Amino acid sequence: MAYAALLPNGRQVVLRRAAPCCLQGQAARRRRLRALISVVVLLLTLSSGCSRDGGDAGDADAQAAEQAAERERRGSVTVSGDDRIADSLTWRRPQAELDPEALDETREQAGSALEEGHLYEDAEAAIPLYLALLEQDPKDKAAVQGLQRSRQRLLDEGERALADSGDDFVALREARRVAAVARTVWPEDAPVRAYLQRVDRADRLWELNREAEAELAEGRYGESGGGALARLREALELQPEQPRALQNLAAVESGLIRRAEEAAGRGDFDTAGQWLGHATLVRPESATVPDARERIERLRTARIASLRDQGLAALRGFDGIAKAREILAELLLIAEPGDPAASDLRERISLAVHYGLFRPGQGFTDALQSGARGPRMVVVPHGAFTMGAPEGEGGASDSERPQRNIRFDRGFALSAHEVTVGEFRRFVNATGYRTRAVRRGFSMVYDERSGNFVRRSGADWQSDYVGATASDDMPVLHVSAQDVEAYAEWLAEESGERYRLPSEAEFEYALRAGSGDAFPWGEGAPPESAGNFTGGLDRSPGGRSWSNAFAGYDDGHWGPAAVGSFAPNRWGLHDLAGNVSEWVADCWHASYRRAPRDAAPWINPGCRTYVIRGGSWASAPEQTRPAWRAPAARDTTNARIGFRVMREL
């Protein structure tokens, strides 16, 4: 068998092989073929150098003529430069020289070649020998039968090569060689034509897979048309379940999933979903995409949780609400509607807007520099209410009108109960402060003997309502507006927070706790244990009773009760309507005309008269109304007035 190659200098190199007297089958021929191809490549390389050194043109022409004659005599299979085209494989029948006197020996030689699988390669191969015998005698029965067996053996070898041709180019080349021989010898034979069609299909499959792999390497998957997918779809139409095409299809799916995961890694889950949608269409029956979707959902969940944590952390820093809102906007882009993490962050931002780092109804105390704790505070929810008394409300006066609408865009904290004697003592001990009653040596106390309030020497913030020593859990009495402002200023300095007296609006809003009725509990007499009010059944230590009281009501106290003795209102605040009246930050004005539109204290510089709010243990029933207000001189001290503090959030 001879192989011809054209060198770059125009010379042709011919490789000849000896007759296959000892061939061991088709596998050995394939190995020799690969070796011969390597030799051709080496000769091509060497010839490029030789051509530069010149050569004998006459020798070259002579050699070329000799090679052409040899090819004509022995036959050849010529492989074109483009291995992708099956038609580029042609077979030239080797010319077997027969001795008419030795035809039996030729028949035996052809049979041996057939048995050895030496079918077409050279003049000593089975097919050339049988063809030569039939040229001598077309009726040579043995040659006819031998040629038929050779055809079948050839097609069997071609089918074996085709079986491996999907991903083995050497096998595909072998199948092409078989096709070239069969097409030359049996062009009209039905099995041959069927085989040739299978070779054409194998060629097309190889080309489609090769093109698809090139598209894959460039990342052109074809999710929107064209690309690798189009070629693979065509390949699978030619041969369903073709392994190489299926493997490449899986690679396309993996590439799309990889893009989805990369998008998810960037936080772009919409794009990730689009890539997963494309991947789903590649192999709908595959479990790979659902698995990838679960992984991406885990990434989404982790990203959402991370953004939530970032948002919460941002709330604690400078300009935290704005930053947290930016983070929430990013979170909402990737979260499903109703996602609990998104809802939580949105709520926390809303709380921060209205309450800082607190929640409505939350109780807390602030640490003081001395190591003690401040009074217990309760967060009052933000909202709106109508301040003052409507026309026709019983017991109301013009000072409670006109009504005005007040809105609290931000919540605030109010003492859960009145400031106690013990809490005020910490202030006095820390500062050495001397209250108005201490400095002037007296205050107004209740006198059981006369049933009136009288001046008593020595009564001060440490005294109860009759002038005796008060316990630490009692509301502090006998303090002036100036005294309670001094306490609030000290508390703010000690805690580093913004403490002050509540405004009228803040006090009434907290007392109403969402109610618009004349009394905090509604209409009529208070329910049992509603607070420390003047009740018709109350009795003093000496057996006195109130002439103007809630009929049938008995709270068990004559004088103030210890703070927190009665149930809080719906916002967690005690004793706003009773027990003791309380100083607020506003200066007294005879009505709400020209009052500020917001809830801030209405203060005039140098004012001497302040406002007290909320009923006391000795107040007439109408004075327990949320709208009730009364003036008091700035330095007033008595057994009915205490205070509580407000803290901004």
Précis, in short:
The protein is α+β, with helices and mostly antiparallel strands and 649 residues long. The protein contains 17 helices and 17 strands.
Blueprint (SSEs and pairs):
Layout: E1 2-6, E2 12-16, H1 26-52, H2 57-74, E3 76-79, E4 89-92, H3 103-116, H4 126-136, H5 141-163, H6 169-185, H7 190-217, H8 227-238, H9 243-265, H10 269-282, H11 288-315, H12 320-334, H13 340-355, E5 363-364, E6 377-380, E7 383-387, E8 404-408, E9 412-415, H14 421-431, H15 436-440, E10 442-447, E11 452-457, H16 481-495, E12 499-500, H17 504-512, E13 581-587, E14 609-613, E15 629-633, E16 641-642, E17 646-648
Parallel strand pairs: 13-16
Antiparallel strand pairs: 1-2, 3-4, 5-6, 6-9, 7-8, 9-17, 10-11, 12-17, 13-14, 14-15
Helix pairs in contact: 3-4, 3-5, 4-5, 5-6, 5-7, 6-7, 7-8, 7-9, 8-9, 9-10, 9-11, 10-11, 11-12, 11-13, 12-13
Describe the structure in your own words:
This protein is an alpha+beta fold. It is built from 17 helices and 17 strands. The chain has helices at about 25-50, 55-75, 105-115, 125-135, 140-165, 170-185, 190-215, 225-240, 245-265, 270-280, 290-315, 320-335, 340-355, 420-430, 435-440, 480-495, 505-510, and strands at about 1-5, 10-15, 75-80, 90, 365, 375-380, 385, 405-410, 410-415, 440-445, 450-455, 500, 580-585, 610-615, 630-635, 640, 645-649. It has a five-stranded antiparallel β-sheet. The longest helix is centred in the first third of the chain and has 28 residues, at about 190-215. It is rod-shaped. Mean pLDDT is about 90; it is low at about 1-60 and about 65-90.
